[in-house]
Amino acid sequence: MKKHLLLGLHILCFMGLYHPLQAQTAVNPVQPWGSWGILTLVLPGTAEKKWGGFAEVQARTNAVFRQYFYHELKTGLSYDLDRNFTFTLAGGRYATADYKDLGAGPLNVEKRFWQQVIMSQFTHRVKLEHRYRVEERWFRFRDDSTSFRMRLRYRLNAFLPLNKPTITDKTVFLSAYDEIFLNPDGPTFERNRIYAGVGYQINAHLTVQAGWVNQANYNLPAFRQGQFIPQNTAAKNNVVLAMAYRLAHRSGGPVGERLPSQHD
To answer: Where would one find the signal peptide in this protein (predicted)?
Structure first.
């Protein structure tokens, strides 16, 4: 047990140290900690029933558990090619407001559609997940202006069960990921997101997680009024609380080990 715990801590530290463009100047170096709350309903595919899906609601606050300003509503359809490959089509609605003036309505509302593939690796102890996603994003701002953007995302997620070799009932596990967001129109590195946390799979249906996420946004360098302004980074730390409930197909066989990854 001690050996596995040390291995997990090494994985978390390694992923935490990897932060693209970390040397850039921070725009908001003293931002307060925020919080994310995530509730997910999942219908995973099985060897017999390959189709599945999910629905998720998420809320974020500017400070820890207060100053609400953002929410997401998402749903999607998945297909398991086999145990290691899952394809997903999904969409969602994302609303951002000013926490100081919620009554004025959202600052902007984004509608998003995406296509993704997940490749999972089940080793004896450490489990790895590679997620590739292409997003189409439509924005409507408070002044009725609109815009369209595309984005590419890649996430490497690692899991380490502590008290069992697999993540099944009554399993405590560590989870860590790093995700990069690429914008074809620039800046190429639009965002980087690092997560580290601990979770507990209570039974075949219910999993809870708690952790930390650092999200860094990158701005394009600019040349204004004869002065060069270098690329800047705005980063924010957040507490993450997540709960996922997994449904089961009525006439399907056992699902087996599934990685408790977050759909965000």
So the answer is: 1-23
CATH number at residue 201: 2.40.160
User: How many angstroms separate the CA atoms of 178 and 196, rounded?
Assistant: 9
Cα–Cα dist 4/7, whole Å: 5
Task: Classify residue 161: in a domain, yes or no.
Answer: yes
Are the beta carbons of 93 and 73 closer than 8 angstroms? yes
Contact in structure between 12 and 5 (CB atoms under 8 Å)? no
For the chain, what percent of residues have pLDDT higher than 70? 81
Residue 250: pLDDT over 90: no
Count structural domains, the chain: 1
pLDDT of the residue at 220 = 62
DSSP conformation letters of 166-217? S--TTEEEEEEEEEEEE-TTS-SEEEEEEEEEEEEE-SSSEEEEEEEEEEEE
- Using the Cα atoms of residue 199, residue 51, residue 117 and residue 146 in order, give the sign of their dihedral: negative
Sign of CA dihedral 236, 73, 200, 126: negative
Nearest CA among 249, 250, 257, 253 for reference residue 78: 249
Residue 254 domain flag = no
In a domain, 252, yes or no: no
Q: What letter does residue 104 receive in the DSSP assignment?
A: G
Angle ∠(232,29,62) on CA atoms, nearest 5: 105
pLDDT over 80 (residue 127): yes
pLDDT tens per residue across span 80-89:
998 899 999 9
Domain that holds residue 187: 2-220+238-246
Are the C-beta atoms of 200 and 207 separated by less than 8 Å? yes
